[in-house]
Amino acid sequence: MSRPTVRERLRYWFDNTMSRGTVALIGWLALISMGLILLVSVLSLWLTPGDAARNSGLPGMLWVSLMRALSPGKVASDTGSTLFVALMFLASMGGLFIVSALVGVLSNGLKTKFEQLREGRSRIIENGHIVVLGWSEQVFTIVTELVQAHASDSRSVIAVLADRDKSRMEDDIRRHVSDLGRTKLVCRTGRPTEPADLDLMNLDTARSVVVLSPQGNDPDAHVIKTLLALAKRAGDHPPVVAAIARTANMAAARLAGGPDVHLVDSDDTASRLIVQSSRQSGMSVVCMDLLNFDAGEIYLRSDPGLTGMTYGQALPAYRTATVIGLRRPGGVMLNPPTDTVITAEDEVVVIAQDDSLIHLAEGMPEADEEVIVAAPHVRPGPERTLVLNWNGRGRQVVHYLDGYVAPGSALDIASDHPDASVPFEGLVNLTVNAKECETTDRYALESLGLGVYQHVIVLSDDRYPAEHADTRTLMTLLQLRDMQTALGERYSIVSEMHDENNRSLAEVTEADDIVISDTVIGLLLAQLAENRHLAEVFGYLFDSRGSEIYPRPAARYVRTGTPVSFASMIESARRRGETAIGYRLAERANEAPHFGVVLNPDKSRPVTLGEGDSVIVLAER
């Protein structure tokens, strides 16, 4: 290859200089301007010395040439020799070109700068803010809940970093979150997996970080890479909460994130909630009320006034809060034995509307012995359950269901999904059979003989996009409800959906319970972003071991048809070794947003429960 010529070297140097941006272009225009002014001035001194002398020589000619370059219109007033006027015209024409180029360069430079500002590439300057990394439909749930949690905080800030246009993110969030209240929203465009982009979020002073599992193929790879980027960055490391879509990726995510990261297993959590909802109608509504910041919230409270009391004695201790368990150095216990003594190291787990309302009552509300019923607990026998449709978490659903049902129970899976017929191993209580079925077809559903089942679970088919899968689920629910009406059959129907907006449509089907899996995960992430210690509490609630939430017939606890206080329900449940946390009114089961569920009611306010109503308790199976 030949050696570069001088011309090529000069052109290469010039190209590199021009690529430095607006400042370099302005510099070149300034040099050209100076050259033009100097050239015209020198020519004037040489060719028209008389005219130059009348303009004070070289200094005057430099000034005159500068004025002609900056204001070409002044050439019309020039007098002198023809050559002098021609030189001034040359300065004016050169200035016209230079000024026009300068205006264009400045305009383009300002446009580029505005676009950069619009993209959100500046470092945020906030303290105590909550950072959300990534983008998915859950971001709307998280922002909504955090806004409610910080409704009284004028300095609340939520910062979102995602590989999307800044203005589009802000518009989408404001469209889904009707009122941001006093919370400040800051969006930045960038990739959460890039350390340089993470620096934009000022993580050293952040209160907590939420890593979202994005939509698309293999979302966990993106989350794990983001956790690696967070772990490797220098500076302070705030608590991190992340959602993992597949249980199989949890071990890799733990290694990537380290000890400061709390992981939410999306598949596992949704599977447990689907199973529990299939067993007890209204379970998902109770969990969503506990997870959101709109109704009763879960708090950890250290109260010296309870030290030395037993757990059973502390149950009615708060008028506007409901005790549900203890947090000890060894872990959380919900609904512990009633004779468990509360020590100074224990924290009480309570449900309350707000932490400012958690105060010990001056006088313990008394239970009414006349309304307490001592009905025995009836253990269910073998059952038949039908699962319609199939997805990646279906196998977890079956294994968790096996831990709840009595020995000898049967489960049938009806779907045309290719994975639905894969044999199961390790089941103890269930016998599983798979059937080929198009679940939106009325005749195919009728051929299943649904009258022999006690429970029907409708899963979301993962072969279709979320919106289409929800539409198919709605079609199946409509067919099931119409079949129940026509044939007079009764079995509980629990369905899984993705979009919270489809729940209002599904209410037409009068399904017993609807689990919005994406919303539940978003609510859980928002709770843990506020207080990661609640992870133990929610982990306990979703576990099949220990005590769980059960809406049970009110007639087993108190006399129906007569006014009773919640204090009486608490006492009745305590005598069974259970903890009452609220009740559900059947006549309001289809009324959003709480669907008849009342958590943490006033212990003295009377309510009349009917035969179809339930007392919601924490209890073991």
UniProtKB/TrEMBL annotation:
The molecule here is called Trk K+ transport system NAD-binding subunit
Fetch the Pfam families from UniProt. Castor_Poll_mid, Slo-like_RCK
Q: Which family does it belong to?
A: Belongs to the castor/pollux (TC 1.A.1.23) family.
| The entry's keywords | Ion transport, Membrane, Transmembrane, Transmembrane helix, Transport
What GO molecular function annotations does the UniProt record carry, in alphabetical order? Answer: monoatomic cation transmembrane transporter activity
The record, for Gene3D superfamilies, names: NAD(P)-binding Rossmann-like Domain (3.40.50.720), Regulator of K+ conductance, C-terminal domain (3.30.70.1450)
Q: Domain of life here?
A: Bacteria
GO terms for biological process, alphabetical: potassium ion transport
* Record-annotated membrane-spanning stretches: 21-46, 83-106
Q: Does the keyword Transport apply?
A: yes
PROSITE patterns membership: RCK_C, RCK_N
The taxonomic lineage of its organism, from the top, reads: Bacteria, Bacillati, Actinomycetota, Actinomycetes, Streptosporangiales
Annotated RCK C-terminal domain residues: 283-366
Cellular compartment(s) = Endomembrane system
Could you tell me the membrane topology recorded for this protein? Multi-pass membrane protein
Asked whether the UniProt record includes Ribosomal protein among its keywords, one would answer no
